[in-house]
Amino acid sequence: MTRRRAIVLSAAGLCTAGVGAAGATRGTPVVGWLGLASAAGDRETMTAFRSGMQALGYREDNGTLVLEARHAGGDPRRAEALIAELAARPVQVVVVPGAAAARAVRRATLIPVVCVALPSTQSDPELFSSLARPGGTVTGFSSYGEELSAKRLEILRQLMPGLRVIGVLHNTSDPTFSAWGEQTVAQAKAQGLQALRLGIASPSKAEVAARLQELRSEGGRAVIVVRDFLTSTMADEIVTQAGSAGIAVVSEMRAFTVRGALFNYGADVQDLFRRAASYVDRILKGERPGDLPIQLPTKFELVLNLKTARQLGIVVPQVLRVQASDVIE
Can you name the residues that pair with 71 across neighbouring β-strands? Predict the structure, then answer.
């Protein structure tokens, strides 16, 4: 065990020691947030989580909650130091967006973790034993991320029926997101499209520009963005540069469409973060994360950006307008 890991585990032990037999904690509950994305990339989901906590009676402005937030800015190498800060605070539970952050906390501490966007597989060797009974220190919610990539491609083909070449932009620095990129490429090929993998490994504007230029040079007119901490951090840059190149952006998350993507389709991630508050509440009251089943999404959304469609010369079929959860004019 490294000295840094020993220090973090020791702090985690102090954190869990404050929970009594009845589940009550002394003083104001301290909840951590570890985002591997930037603060801007986490803003909407943090707002949703705060809303969920407020609905349960926890507020930062009246002394009933302390929320300690840390953001790695798209650089997962910063995670270890940020986790050490949270453990030393000490926090009683950590909320994380995504499996990469969950793994980082799980490897370093014994602090309970509530994760949104866990894999929807029946088990994960490191994070949970099963969806019904996770075991260990991690629980949370799946977002059905890349399981819905085929549906995104179907919608894209309705909007761009002549499309032949697409790009799949994803993070290559984490095996989970590399696998999701491969899954999306396979779905595109199954639908008769030529798919180019566009990997990025750092929050670099130049890297994003180079990948999109590769796509444009091959005649690509659309890019599927795999949601992760790196693409969330670079959302503004991805949408801006793609728009300048005449490339339509498709995402899983509404935040991209608000910024100018053509559309998003996927689980209502903000709803999942509001629901995550209930698991934080239960853990603060003494329940073990390993006993809380991993929940699946119940709300899905299709959001269309008609302004972007007009700029790209795309006619949005009426059937999609009717199906959309929301339309950005």
Answer: 35
